[in-house]
Amino acid sequence: MRRSFRRPLRPLAALLLLAAAVAAAQAPRPNVIRLEPKPMAGVDRGKAVVVKGRAGAEPHRFMLDSITYMQPVAVALRPVRRGERVDLSITKYAWNRPLRQGNTDGDILRYGFRTEGEFQVSVSAPQPGTDYRLLVWVGDETKPDFAPVVVKASGFGQAGAGSGSPVPWVIAAVLAGILALLAVLAFRRKSS
Question: What does DSSP say about strands 32-34 and 60-67: parallel, antiparallel, or unpaired?
């Protein structure tokens, strides 16, 4: 009884393996270059990396990771020869869903942003063999100065001692006078 159950599964398993092999052969993984910014001469703060390349219809893909939201990021792209066009796409998760994209149109293309984790950059050109320069700068982590949220009771009491304004006391005295006047008027009417 068990043999008759296994027989139909063998061709099904072979068919699944064949389909997986065909799918793996059809979709080669794109070549992604991991960029590692380093301190650079002429860059006072942060780290940078410069890529020299020759773009075409097939995009050059780059990835940066280990970025915190407190680090500013700048990406600049320019063609080597003035007047040539190079396209840039910046993505976060999927290569086919750019968050920012543009082209040089002969001039420098710049984007500044903040992100957490990693992001990807792809560079392409309509004209094959277009030379380009890509600069990616990652700034130093900024640490904002926040006043402490919790204040000790001893510090809070000393800060306000002797430095109060007389205005609230004047307002309280005026209100007390008005209440006294109203009380006198109310008692006078009752006695008359």
Answer: parallel
Quote the CA–CA distance of 96 and 69 in Å, as a whole number.
23
Average of per-residue pLDDT values in the chain: 86
Closest Cα to residue 135, out of 46, 31, 30? 46
CA distance 192 to 69: 78
Helix spans in the chain (H): 2-6, 9-26, 153-160, 167-191
**Rg (Cα) of the chain, in Å, rounded?**
35
The tokens of 74 are what?
A: 């700048």
Residue 63 predicted with pLDDT over 70: yes
Rounded to two decimals, the pTM is 0.63
Q: How far apart (Å, rounded) are the C-alpha atoms in residues 106 and 103?
A: 8
Amino acid at 3: R
What's the DSSP call for residue 81? S
Domain 57-138 in CATH 3.30.360.10? The answer is no
The count of residues in the chain is 192
For the chain, the domains span 57-138
Q: Are 72 and 142 in contact (CB under 8 A)?
A: yes
DSSP structure string for 95-133: TTS-SEEEE-TTS-EEEEE--SEEEEEEEE-SSTTEEEE
- Per residue in 130-156, pLDDT (tens digit) is 999 999 999 999 888 888 788 777 766
